[in-house]
Amino acid sequence: MTTQLLNLWRRFTRRSTEVEKAPLLSIPAQTPSTVIEPMEIAPNDPLLAYVQNVAGVVEVDQLQLDSPALRELKQANIQLVAPLVSQGQLIGLLNLGPRLSDQEYSSDDRRLLNNLAAQAAPAVRVAQLVYQQQVETRQRERMEQELRVARIVQETLLPRELPALLGWQVATYWQPAQAIGGDFYDFIALPDGRLGIVIADVTDKGVPAALVMASTRSMLRGAIERYTAPGEVLKRVNNLLCPEIPPKMFVTCLYAIFNPDTGHFWFANAGHNLPGQRTKEGVIELRARGMPLGLLPDMNYEEVETTLAPGDSILLYSDGLVEAHNAAREMFGFPRLRHLLAINGQLDLPPRTLERLKTAVAETTMNAIEHGNGFQADLMAEIQVLTSAQALIVRITDQGGGKMIPDVQTPNLQAKLDGLQSPRGWGLFLIKNMVDEMHISSDDQYHTVELVFHL
């Protein structure tokens, strides 16, 4: 029996991923050093239901069930089956063939087999769980490596520098999610000082999406060299992608040509998020119809033109912006995005007020990161902007609650020059003098500094 039990342990340890299928292990008594390959029983096999509801050893010859597993046991000359049960769950069967002496199994044999099964079941279950954990760890490590590779691919293909356009400001922000996707953007210098602008999003995650992203970027750049119109560029790339793209994947993409001399913005859209143009009159959604790239060949792409006047701006974005969730699991959404675009266009702050705003918010945010969050990368500093016809309010919140923010004091310049005070400590004083009102609040978890500008 001892040799058979050790063989059982090794076999179940090696096959612990098959727990749900209840593997059967046959160990013939005539050859105690030999282990027969485990059997796999279908979840709906009647034998499983039977042994789950009986207590103790089962005599195979006495069973009359329409069971493929039972027939296989009888063909293997198995005489006794002892269920291995751990915490009420059937995790396997201990199977014995005829005794070496050709005698019948005695009641003592059955009692010993029951005891062995009761003691072996928990140990086998632990071995299964350990092995399953090892498998999951390896899978998680492979996934993390895949995400690292995908992120490297993405970062390598993104523009290293923003285009410098006289009289225009260009800003980009790229923040990958935990599961790396295929979002990317690109700038291509065109003849006559024009600028090609691409923003796209590949479905799926990880390395497959990163590879499709790299291929799409190359196809776009090649098509842009051959074709002038944005719609023709997307049509060419779509026809190249369709026969090559993996199943159930596609690419949403917007390609635009911008003329900084005139403000002319000419684009075609392959199923991407609609750009928003902010004007003095309000926010306009720019609509151009077209199927995502890689779904159907020979698609045509509508082209739309607009002109940016002084003070206008255009926002291009991927769905990660509107699908972002806050701590309360509320989605950012399109209505909130349009609302913020409209508000941003209505402020029209004087240059001096805008510079004070930038300096005060930057200094307060750095204080939140340094003194509140202690430069911990996993702690976020939240910035909230509220506006009305009377005031602009900016709230900066860090996660350094429990520590009091010192009262604002006028620095003693001479004491600082004489080395009697730290050269630091100007921050709150400067911030307070740059805004119309400053309010500080704290609790056990957060600090919040509220900056108020009267409009």
Structural account:
By secondary structure, the chain is of the alpha+beta class. The chain has three domains: 2-132, Beta-Lactamase (2-Layer Sandwich); 158-345, PPM-type phosphatase domain (Phosphatase 2c, domain 1, 4-Layer Sandwich), CATH 3.60.40; 351-454, Histidine kinase-like ATPase, C-terminal domain (Heat Shock Protein 90, 2-Layer Sandwich). The chain is built from eleven helices and 16 strands. It has helices at 2-14, 46-52, 68-75, 107-157, 206-226, 230-241, 319-322, 333-347, 351-372, 413-417, 427-434, and strands at 24-27, 58-59, 80-86, 89-96, 182-189, 195-202, 251-259, 264-270, 276-279, 282-285, 303-307, 313-315, 382-387, 391-398, 437-442, 447-454. Helix 5 packs across helix 6 (230-241). The model is unreliable at 1-34 (pLDDT under 50).
Task: Please outline the helices and strands.
Blueprint: H1 2-14, E1 24-27, H2 46-52, E2 58-59, H3 68-75, E3 80-86, E4 89-96, H4 107-157, E5 182-189, E6 195-202, H5 206-226, H6 230-241, E7 251-259, E8 264-270, E9 276-279, E10 282-285, E11 303-307, E12 313-315, H7 319-322, H8 333-347, H9 351-372, E13 382-387, E14 391-398, H10 413-417, H11 427-434, E15 437-442, E16 447-454
Rounded radius of gyration (Å) = 35 Å
Largest sheet: 5 strands, antiparallel
Q: What is the overall silhouette?
A: flat
The name of the CATH superfamily of the largest domain reads PPM-type phosphatase domain
Number of strands: 16
Q: Would you state the CATH class of the largest domain?
A: Alpha Beta
Query: What structural category arises from helix and sheet content?
Result: alpha+beta
Q: What is the CATH topology of the largest domain?
A: Phosphatase 2c, domain 1
Oligomeric state of the chains in view: single chain
Total helical segments = 11
Kindly report how far apart the N and C termini lie: 89 Å
